[in-house]
Amino acid sequence: MAMTIDGTAGVTYPSGVVDSNASIGYTQTWTNVVGSRALGTTYTNSTGRPIFIVVVVGGGTVINCLATLTVSGITTIAYGTNSGTAGGASYPIVSALIPVGGTYSVQNANNATLQSWFELR
User: In terms of residue numbers, what domain contains 70?
Assistant: First the structure.
């Protein structure tokens, strides 16, 4: 089937079929999933589409927070610090595009806590 592109409506296919593998963001919305996510747990993207995640850890007077994000075996690190005074805060942020079937997890160090976890899905 040949694909056509309509400048106002995006990508369309013959007979009105929408491609289930459309670009990231197409028909997806940001979802707050903090209530169903935990640090140190591995999740799998089983949505059938790529997703994007943004995770924030830290808070309080935690000094030298460290967050590691692992996506399908590849690890990245975000580091945050503060003066250690009362009311200070440290909030490392990690984010990544998660491919279909990819696994992902976020770890923390120095007693940081999960602050927020959003997924574009």
Answer: 22-120
Give the chain's domain count: 1
CATH number at residue 101: 2.60.120.40
Within a domain: 8: no
* CA of residue 62 relative to chain centroid, distance: 23
DSSP state of 87: T
Show the tokens assigned to 86. Answer: 């009362």
Strands 113-120 and 30-32: antiparallel
pLDDT one-digit tens code per residue, 69-109: 999 999 988 776 655 555 566 678 899 999 999 999 999 87
Q: What is the pTM of this model?
A: 0.75
Instruction: List Cβ neighbours of 89 (8 Å cut-off, separation of 6 or more).
Output: 58, 59, 60, 61, 62, 82
Q: Identify whether 31 is part of a domain.
A: yes
Mean pLDDT over residues 24-35, rounded? Answer: 94
- Is 13 inside a domain boundary? no
Q: Is 84 left (phi over 0), alpha (psi -120 to 50) or beta?
A: left
